[in-house]
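Much of our argument rests on the idea that a fold can be written as discrete symbols. In the encoding step, the backbone of a single protein was reduced to a row of integers, each denoting a local shape. We regard such an encoding as a compact summary of how the chain folds. The record that follows shows the chain in one-letter code together with its fold in token form:
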Amino acid sequence: MTHPHDAQPSVLIAGAGPAGLAAASELAHHGIRSIVVEPRREISYIRPRAKTTSARTMELFRRWGVADAVRRAAPLSREWCRRVVFCDDLACEAITEFQDVFGLSAAEHGLAAESGQQVMQPVVEDVLREHLARTGLAEIRLGERLRGFTEQPDGVSCEIIRADGSAYRLVSEYLLGCDGSRSTVRDGIGATLHGSSAPYANLNAVIRAPGLRPASGTALHYWVVGTDVPGVVGPLDHDGTWWVSLGEVGEPVGTESALELIARLAGRSVVELGIEVLSTDPWTPRMMLADQFATERVFLVGESAHVNPPLGGHGFNTCVGDGVNIGWKIAAVLQGWAGAGLLASYEVERRGVAELTLASAVRNLRASGPERATTTERIQETKAEEFYSLGLVLGYSYAGSPVITGADEDDPPHLGVENYVPTTVPGARLPHAWVSPGHALYDDLGLGMTLLQPSDSDAEAVAAFADRAAALGIPLTLLEFPKGAHWTQDYLLVRPDQHIAWRGRDLEGVDLSRLCGTSRCSGSPTASSEKTQEGAHLCPCTD
């Protein structure tokens, strides 16, 4: 039952999809080794899954040094097209359109260090696998899956099944369930998904159609709203490979029926189009959230914790954000400068983000349903949130987390889905700033905490603060605000994930133990902790 190459890993990750690869990459970023078990031996390029990598996810990729590699691997450059079209069918001119979509120019507008990127999920997974191989800190065991586990006070004993049916046992300090909506890990901690599903199934397909030339010109998406079965079509490359999503198909659809439906979207006959169907995938939109995200040593990451419709492109990106959040926190605990309270904050912080993205996806799904808009005015009114969501993508906040302090009750975080407003309210993502051309402030942040100092900073107070951090073993990087950054005159303490942990003028009053989850008031679950209906643990000594 023992694997021949075993040394006890710090973290076992079940699943090498976006969540698992992101978690392993974040751990590697901090020098922490992991083992990833993944049933799929190969990544399928004829099932593209997600196609939108947000500006925020690209910023996180930049931290690992893979943002440029993702862009190089993407068949469609972000400069090629930033347009979404709505039409009666592909043979018709556009009813209306949306320009500059999906944050593809966020960096150009100074809102982010990286712009979004249209690229199918298999490409990103391949880039991340190659990156992890280069780090030498993550071993991906393909053809293997987690069958079960037992959580113990000092670790998690996991049973792994190989493709040939043989099994072995592996003990890790932590287990991450990145194993999707049918999660073995979720079942193992006794958590349950709650929510609803759409009444009818949809159908995704990938086709080869080199002769397909939509009348409305080049676009990333073509939303067809004038047919009995609505759908969306978009290019995957410049060589005639397209993805198709057909709404409310209902009963299982074979290849021949799929061809007929796609032909209706195109406004041409099957013979005229010369389509080759490469794959079909029936799917049902589901809006689900787990009632518990974690125990002390086991964490649900990505779709094991939340499942949402893909409309708006947030699902994949939320999974990556989960992986980063839990990854740096586990690293901090393993390195000795943080405690259990920091791990407990994972569920509090990421549940809030999951709820926001789920609500947005549900609104987008509703706007694409039977009562979908077909006129210019109504389309613009009901669908804008799907294509303009930088407020959600860049503006989500961890305010209210037990390891975030210094917020002014009179200065709540601003969050609108469409428009992003930079803020330094604790919990928010640190606003982006360029230090010099191509050199972002984010590039200078440390692997631990970073103290940003205003122009009138007190050198003695800063030195005393640095001494306190050193005494607690907290890695601390000291930086000055970049020129032109007039967000605040306060000090800002920034976490490794680029979110603001504290803001204020009194460095002596900063509770570093709380921020790192080592104090009693850091939100760590205890026997006397209360548990909310949402599953978040509340420390009894906090307000």
